Fold this protein.
Amino acid sequence: MHIQSDVCIIGDGAIGKVAALGFAQAGLKVALLSPASRAAASVATEVWDARVYAVNHVGHDLLSAVKVWEALDATRVAAVDSMAVHGDAAGELAFDAYGARVGALAWIVEDRNLNQALDAALKFASNVRIVHGRATSLQADEKAACVQLENGDTLAAELLVGADGGQSWVRAQCEIDFDYRPYGQRAIVTNFACEKPHYGVAHQWFSATEGIIALLPLPGLRVSLVWSAPDALADILSQETLTQLAARVTAWSTLQLGTLSPLQPEVVKSFPLSLIRPRAITAPRVALIGDAAHVVHPLAGHGMNLGFADVVGLIKAVTERGAHRDCGDARVLSSYARSRKEDILLMQLATDGLARLFGTEFEPLRMARNLGLNLVNKLPVLKRRLIGHALGR
């Protein structure tokens, strides 16, 4: 079977799905390649997904535009009204929605809630054809990019979009080199019930010895933990019971949230952290988006938001291409790459720099970083710029 489309997207994660909906809404014919069809796992409604995203205003606006935000289960979405960053000494930095003149700084959304809403929207997207299979080769010429599937089918499109994650097959097929550096940390993620109300505040603690501990608000008396722990500590945390882990985190948060306790049933996930910086995010008739284009440290919670901004930038470049150019024209891809260069670079520098800065116990640097937090907290102009960047503006 030969399937022809304007845009072919490889990758069935949230970024690939929202890109498919966005291109379809723009009137383009889309093929979305995902792995072999699998039955959806049955999950009790009371189970809270351990993996969550802090969706900023760029993501919110994009999901609203493709009619997905309204399809989310709103009872499982929590607004972030303020953020408190705690250094490892007396350093403090705080942001709030009132000061930023917005209704919320971000929204905490479960991975399952987001993907269920995207899947429902795709069922009604007449311009999107979902193809199940495994790609084995990719070739591009002057007219199209062509993907050969394991079953012998082929997918051809003017533009091929790689949305297949940090270990991107598309990126490898295009022979795009990348810089890779492991952080020597693993993210431990789970959810807790909290004794005191969180009031929509996201907390983050930096520690040179224990990593970065973030507690994000969930609906009700619940919070989501993202602990970027050094590998040695992560090994210990992974072997402890969730009650023991709750006691550890309570020691950091007791003044703000009181005693934490595991949610039932207990769900804990862990994944290694690294920096992946491709030398390019485009190739002939190919564009990379999401983790295929960049993997950053999760300390700022903006990995998914960078992906949403990629989708916005790529759709804009394609829809403004002019009648005489096709979707995969070299100038279209160049426009996309230029539009994303600064945003991606700033986020890479910021997250990598903070991870390095707060990963050292060198006393002069320790004093400087905490002083820096306090200084930024007292400079309204700089603080507004940081908030604007966090909002995606």
